[in-house]
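Entry 14. Ran structure prediction on the chain below.
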Amino acid sequence: MYPELEKVGGLQNAIDIEFEKLNSTLRVTQDSGLGKIPLTYARIENRQKFSQVYIGAEEKIYLPDFWKEGVCLAHGQTTNISELAQVLDFWLCNDISTKQLADKFSFVSLSDKAFAFDNNNEVEYTWNLILQDQNRQEINDFVKLAIKDNVLNKLFPFTSLYTLCFSRCTGYPYDTDNLPNVTPKLFENFAPIQGKKNSAEQDIKKLETQFVVKKNKSEYLGEGNAEEALKIVKENLPDNVQQARKGTADE
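Output, structure tokens:
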């Protein structure tokens, strides 16, 4: 399905040839182990942006994604490798928003969070996203308080399984060093006593309002209801918490 790739020795070479046709300064980040059919993958970087390109297995299609400051903001799909090179060059070589990218290339689809990140509203957006997530109801009581706290709500929230974590940056990998995290006690190794149904149900109901606070994944800091957990978190935050910055922990 990809004669243009076989002809030049793989996806990476094919994209570089298209960049040359555009007089683009971009080149694929070289990885000899991933450039040949059938293991076709390419990564192209420029400053705080990068894109990855995959290909379809059952139909001919190129699948790029679009990352900025550690966040995947859009995906695309095209059957034309020249269009692929054009969209990559436009994204990676220009200071543009994701909306400008999608307006120019109709085969690009923005993620739901793209608008918030474009408008520097990603921290507030993500807090509200977690608050409204029906699959995260167990942490809801704590989030309702934290989202109104003028110190904690400066940090970028994210979830890891059932745990609510906080980061000093908005991109992945996150900067969580020495920051607390909160887990509903219901998921902290709770095992009801077999054969005591009423007792177990009461225990579960009680645990649904309790939270365990830890730091660095394993250091136990305390536990309690939402108000008590918030107090423990704030007591263990570093001084002078600033608004979470764009970028990643590596930066």
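The beta strands are 42-46, 49-55, 62-68, 71-76, 108-110, 156-160, 163-167, 180-184, 211-215, 219-224. Will compare against last week's run tomorrow.
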